[in-house]
Amino acid sequence: MRIVGGQFKGFTFQPPKVMPARPTTDYAKEGIFNILQNMYDWESIKVLDLFGGTGSISYELASRGCTDITCVEMDAKLISFIQKNRASLKIEDTCKVIKMDVFRFINSQPGQYDLIFADPPYQLAHLESLPDLIFANSLLKEDGLFVMEHDSKNRFEEHPHFKRSRNYGNTIFSLFS
Fold first, then answer.
1. What count of Cα atoms within 13 Å lies in the side-chain half-sphere of residue 171?
2. With CB atoms counted within 10 Å of each terminal CB, which end of the chain scores lower, N or C?
3. Are strands 68-73 and 46-50 parallel, antiparallel or unpaired?
4. Which residues have a Cβ under 8 Å from the Cβ of 75 and sit 6 or more positions away?
5. For the structural domain made of 43-176, what CATH number should be given?
6. What is the dihedral of CA 79, 29, 120, 106, to 10 degrees?
7. Angle 26-37/56-63 helices, nearest 10 degrees?
């Protein structure tokens, strides 16, 4: 795996051999970040990375200049992996990592974010409830964007906050605001 853009472009990292995560492909990351690149001044936004997994999305955000990233992951091995890469990239001050169940975090989080990424396991029970929880708990700022990665088994076009989706092979990003 590698970082596909920004100051750390080309940085490669090998995820743990046995891990409970499915990392976003470089192709899909490049596609979604090409869309987002024209929407944000990375240095001025607050970002939440839910289901952080290997930390790949958080690294991309930091590489592009984002200085306020919160990454939420529950698995201890993945947290350790993210911590190691944060140190290698020297982004400990810009990327905070929280070890917690994402649903518990969403229901207890008082802050708001400009951009929220969620890359849940595709077979996650209640995956379809994530957009509702984000909006019910007012986690997005008024002009914020929620980006959720999923496969074709889930469809969100009828959700009241759905804006559009982008397909990258088997990966779909649904955008909500």
1. 20
2. C
3. parallel
4. 19, 20, 21
5. 3.40.50.150
6. 80
7. 40
